[in-house]
Amino acid sequence: MRATRATLGALVLLVGVAALAPAARADFGILPDSLKVTALNRNGTTATQAGAHPYAFNVQFKLKTDGAGNSEGGEMRDVISELPPGFLGNPLAVPRCSRQSFEGGVPNCDPDTQVGVLSAIIPGIGEAFGPVYNLVPPPGAAALLGFKEATLTALLSATVNSEDDYSVRIIAPDLPVPVTQASATIWGVPADPEHDPERGVSGSGGPTPTVEPLPFLTLPTSCESPPEFGIEVDSKLAPGIFTGEPALLSDNVGNPVMLSGCEAVPFSPQVSAGPSTPAAESPSGLVFKLGLPNQDLLNPNEDAVTETEPEKTVVTFPEGIIANPSAVNGQGVCTPAQFKEAKTSSGPGQGCPESSKLGTLTANSPLLDESVEGSLYLAAPHNNPFNSLLALYIVAAAPERGVLVKQAGLIEANPVSGQLTTTIDGLPPVPYSSFEVRLREGPRAPLITPQLCGPYTTTAKLYPFSDPGTATV
């Protein structure tokens, strides 16, 4: 009986501990309403002009703490920040500090690489404060920021949510000390002399950078809804179990703000398209080019407004250009499952099969130091996002920067004339200077040119993020 009672007592004790442990973990998280996100003009007012370069951007939050000032439910381990689509950072606008120069007791980064400041509260120690540097990113990251103070080192890695809305996610993993609150201010134009009083290790001031002042931050070019940000954190007691808080872009007193002035956002795309052969009634490829001048993307003036990109494109080929029946001989197709498998690191046998390839594409962005390259694939008939006979998939990547572009496009053929129209919706809200598509040539080229010689015009309707209901032709 004693052994039985002891066993029952142990079971009761274990059940009690098990019941208490989840409750303790449940207390961990961000203090409600503590997440604040603001973008400011030089004069301290809220920056609301769509496509503008704010003077400064600030994000701050606190954890729930106990009476001793320690975070409830364990120490914070990782922080994930979700930026709204179209909120952009340009890591090429500021020199980069090498990891070798950043590591060590005190960072030996050139002052020109500083892009802002960060403050963190550490229980029992106090405030950790210092500069945020633009670092050389590792393979797979679009950008890397770094903060290093005597007690706290934080690396903030930026990646692109390629499988969703192409927004930017910033991850600060494995914090070495128990941070209970943090505030980061990133400068819109880091080389602006007005930031000089905040420069340096102690934030007591530093010399004006010697580099050209270029914008590091750009607000979204959409005015449809307030930009929404998010912070997620997990604890060292429950790693991988994240809890988060959303927050809308707000003014200085916490009121949500809409971006405005979308009518002032420039949009001047340049489009050209034509068959790869001038011969009539012949198999032909296609060359389609889209260029954007990225007006004011690199203009540091406070009143500069950056050009937007097309959110949707509708391209209609001239009547007489039709699909090539011979192209189906030996032509493979890509299934939704194969399309989903495509990654930045996809190798042979992964993603869409080579037999389904229709052509290639190359895009260049002023935010990336490498091209985004990939292919177009024929989607499986009636087994695609549109349940249509004809559809295509775009898969392109810049593997070194972890950027992956995956888009589905609907191809519609006029039931009478056979005239083809391709629609691609949900394009990335990321600046690019050039976008070129080349459909394959040869006897199995996907198109047939018109029977009669003469001029033919391809029509392209481009719908910008700043005004998605109005097309530019």
Compute the average pLDDT. Answer: 89
N→C terminal distance: 88 Å
Strand order of the largest sheet: 1-2-10-5-6-7-8-9-3-12-13
Query: Would you tell me the structural class of the helices and strands?
Result: mainly beta
Roughly how many Å is the radius of gyration? Answer: 27 Å
Strand content: 25-35%
* Number of strand segments: 26
In terms of quaternary structure, the protein is single chain
Task: Give the low-confidence spans.
Answer: 1-25
Relative helix content:
under 10%
What count of helical segments does DSSP give? 3
Largest sheet: 11 strands, antiparallel
**How would you describe the shape?**
elongated
Encode the helix/strand succession as letters: HEEEEHEEEEEEEEEEEEEEHEEEEEEEE
Describe the structure.
- The protein is mainly beta.
- Helix content is 7%, strand content 34%.
- The chain is built from 3 helices and 26 strands.
- An 11-stranded antiparallel beta sheet has the order 1-2-10-5-6-7-8-9-3-12-13, with no helix packed on it. A 10-stranded antiparallel beta sheet has the order 14-16-24-19-20-21-22-23-17-26, with no helix packed on it. A 3-stranded antiparallel beta sheet has the order 15-25-18, with no helix packed on it.
- The chain is elongated.
- The N terminus is likely disordered.
Secondary-structure topology with pairs:
Blueprint: H1 2-26, E1 36-40, E2 56-62, E3 76-82, E4 88-89, H2 99-102, E5 114-122, E6 126-135, E7 143-148, E8 153-160, E9 168-172, E10 181-187, E11 217-218, E12 228-235, E13 243-248, E14 270-275, E15 283-284, E16 286-291, E17 310-316, E18 322-323, H3 336-341, E19 357-364, E20 372-378, E21 390-398, E22 403-413, E23 420-425, E24 434-439, E25 447-448, E26 459-464
Antiparallel strand pairs: 1-2, 2-10, 3-9, 3-12, 4-11, 5-6, 5-10, 6-7, 7-8, 8-9, 12-13, 14-16, 15-25, 16-24, 17-23, 17-26, 18-25, 19-20, 19-24, 20-21, 21-22, 22-23
